[in-house]
User: Fold these one by one.
Assistant:
Number 1:
Amino acid sequence: MQVKAAKQLEGEAVGDPLAAAGLQNSLGESLLSLGHPQDAISLFVKSRATRTAQQEADIHRLLDQDKLEEIERFCSASPTATLSEAKTHFGSKFDYGDLRFGMSYLRSRKK
């Protein structure tokens, strides 16, 4: 039940991205205590990416400048690329968390 709810919990569904990030974090803690660490980690990463995009977290504490610049070059060359497409492009060089943080941050700056 919690895992299904976690998949539906996005900023757009809640209406307030920071409220969604808070809920994602709380649900992640619940899933962690129930023995679902991978699902919890996914929620923690989404929550942090949202907070970074909303400039509630410092991107430079999450990614070093070289990584951010490389993600920025990719996003400039492929502005409509999805997270999955970025992961395919970078392979094992970046994990999903790095890409989610970087792409969320860069897209939030363009608004």
Number 2:
Amino acid sequence: MNDKGNRYAVAALKDRRAPISAEIVQLEGKLRHRRRLLVHVDSCLKAGLAHVRVHDLKHIWAAVARGRSEL
């Protein structure tokens, strides 16, 4: 491959790298969020709220996922 072809290949690779990198950052943020939710679930279980109905928990965790503090 000549120099011109190499430049195009490098440019194409850089263009491809940007969205992959952005997706990784987004997924890492989602992972951090899920870990925080898991901490809340574990805290509730430790506090003895294991008897709460699953139906009720779905509403509570949906509110937490939306960023509302209704706990």
